[in-house]
Amino acid sequence: MSDAPDWQKVVTVTTSVGEVTDAPDWQRVVVAPGGVPISGGGGGGSTEDIYPPDDGMYGWSIPFTLSNSAAILTSVGDLGLTRVKAAASGTVGSLYTDVTIVGSGFTADENYVGLYQPVLSSGALTSLSLLGSSAAGAADTPFTTLGIRTVPLSPGVAVTAGSIYYVGWVTNGSPGRMQLSSTSALTASAQAPPLVYPYSLTYPGHSLTALPNSVTVSACTQYRLLWWWALGP
User: Fold this and answer.
1) What's the mean pLDDT in 186-207?
2) Cis status of the peptide bond prior to 155, with omega within 30 of 0
């Protein structure tokens, strides 16, 4: 539907299982042959539109109804990043995610979430710049409980409708890891065709205990999935 609003599209695939690449990050409806919805929209296969501001959010990576329990976990000290498009302008005061397998043994003051801004050079994504982070200790306990979890940013971060951002998170401890809701887990690989804004990234091998101010994209591993994160007040 090339003439549909940016926040409302229906994408037809030729099989009942397929990757949708041209729908907005936060709203996707997959339709099997014959026009039967199989996922997305208002849940249960409904084509009802879900718009982040209707739920009091500034944006999210994907509708919550499209997420499931993914198998990919970031290692301790590794930065995880997932793409979010802002649907409304405002100041993001908290980041939201869905914990599907709880973590434990987190090291105090070495767990953070934050928001990054893409930096382009000649139309290509080269780096990510940190806009804001949670305070020390704020992300030590949220990942120890199942369900929707909230981590406040300190201070809040202003976002602009229509702009792309990346939510980043890093955890440490023994084991110090958790599993977050996402789209179906797929093999780590570069996108084909290459995307200006990859779905998700990890920044491995740096033993981070806080969020880095800048991330070089060429040093990251790309994933063809989206973890569920939302930008909220």
Assistant:
1) 77
2) yes
Residue by residue, DSSP assigns the chain as: -TTS-TT---EE-SSSS----SS-TT--EEEETTTEEEEETTBTTB-----GGGGT-SEESS-GGG-EE-S--PPTTPEEEEEEEESS-EEEEEEEEEEEE----BPTT--EEEEEEEEEETTEEEEEEEEEEPPTTTTSSGGGSSEEEEEEEEEEEEE-TT-EEEEEEE--BSS---EEEES----B---SSPPSS-SEEEE-SS--SS--SEEEGGGSEEESS-B-EEEE-
Query: What are the CA-CA distances from residue 199 to residues 20, 39, 82, 192, 232 (Å)?
Result: 12, 19, 6, 12, 20
Domains of the chain: 1-50 (no CATH), 65-232 (2.60.120)
Judged against a pLDDT cut of 90, whether residue 210 lies above it is answered with yes
Whole-number pLDDT of residue 27: 43
Structure tokens that stand for 31 in this block: 């339709």
Amino acid at 36: V
Give the model confidence (pLDDT) of 30-62 as tens digits: 333 333 232 333 333 333 346 677 677 899 998
pLDDT digits (tens, 9 = 90+) for 111-125: 999 999 999 999 999
Give this prediction's pTM.
0.77
Q: What is the pLDDT of residue 190?
A: 58
The count of C-alpha atoms lying within 13 angstroms of the C-alpha of 24, restricted to the half-sphere facing its C-beta, is 28
